[in-house]
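Table 4 source record.
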Amino acid sequence: MNPVRNIVIVGGGTAGWMAASYLERQLAHLRPSITVVESSTIGTVGVGEATVPAIRDFFAAVGLSDAEVLRETEGTIKYGIRFDGWKEPGHRFFHPFGLYGVPARGVAFHQYWLKLRQAGDATPLAAYSLATQLAEHGRFLQPAQNPTNDLGVFDFAVHFDASRFAALLRRRAVAAGVRHVDARIDRVERDPESGHVAAVLLEDGRRIEGELWIDCSGFRSLLLGEALQVPYVDWRHWLPVDRGIAIPCCPRDAAPEPFTIAIARSAGWQWRIPLRHRIGNGHVYCSDFLDDTSAEAMLMEGLEGEPLGQPNRLRFTTGHRARFWDRNVIGLGLASGFLEPLESTSISLIQTGLERLVRFFPDAGFDPRLATAYNYQSVLEFERLRDFLLLHYWENGRSGEPFWDHMRAIVPPEGLQLKLDTWRASGEFVRREWETFQDPSWLSLYAGFDDLPDRPSPLADRFSNAELTDTFTRMRAAIAGTVAQAEPHAAFLARVAGEGEAARRATVS
């Protein structure tokens, strides 16, 4: 055995401190030395405030509870994303974290819904989603561990202040023994024989050595991109959005909604993320169709309250490094690639990268076969997400607007085209390896854009329209009853905050 004893994480922020916290916990039996090198004089992007439900697995993995994160980060609940104006101005639909309806006799629920729709029943698919109804009514309900049927299968994620989340992880990681070095890196040293990164030289003259290096240096990609010269795979021909402006504002007096809002704009879209202490706002757009000044004005005009600070301007290229793991360096977060925040996957990709690293964790010999497997899975994950994001744009019906017309004219990647063709022909899904979003998510987009198959599956004829109508009525009633008994979102947040304050007073006393 020749275990890795010295892990160095270059860069802090969300990615760096997620890495430190996760590796400290998951590799505790190996007792490696973990060092985070970051400079407090270098800002982080820090605009990511929305997540997907998998983040709660990360909380558990590093010893955090949902309630603790909500308290420490001014967080709120997220049941999904509402898309405003993507199909056409004035139209909206919801992508929930949960299932729709209940299947029967081996036939998916949506096939029966299509059958009734063909018969004239205009009830929207959203009426059969508990997560959607909880979001629309501003309620909170803890998912059951063993729901009685699929009608009760749903999940939630959180909105949080990313800077506060990173600070929470930093405090806990340092308390657990992670070494924190606050300094700028002047130079990267590589081993002349292997080409591995051997050390970084700091501006103050100190030299930090390491065996395994985690690059969390953001868009700069100091180790993976600059030192190892791993090329970047550019996906702008599919996802040309390349600019972003973010600014928080004061919240309204109304209770925060338990969902994210993505609003279509002339050359991109705007996000709205409600936290307890602020509203997160951002405008993501394509510079080929909109200049920076106009984009910023459009964002500022739509703020609900007074801005909190100055706009944070971002430039990016959608895509990824050709290799996520090269020699003894693994890139995480923006250092490894970027997919725009349309479905809140940036933090999720950090999490899956860490899980994959622990699963393929090397010894000091760095068997290249581990890197090959890691890179294969990482690229597939990015490609599947790229296709899902592109679908949002490609399905749009905003005719006569240059950006949106351009997006509809893009030729989809082969895998996405296969999914579309199969869905339109049969109402069935093609599941591919390393999909982040599963069938219900694709269904929410297809139905949201009214892209439905010509006919339901013949298997849906196992029940008559009358039988289905009666069953569907009972499903809607069951969902309505559950929502009525759920706790108001604002009351839940107040209760969580109160429990934290009570615990603090008890500790002090």
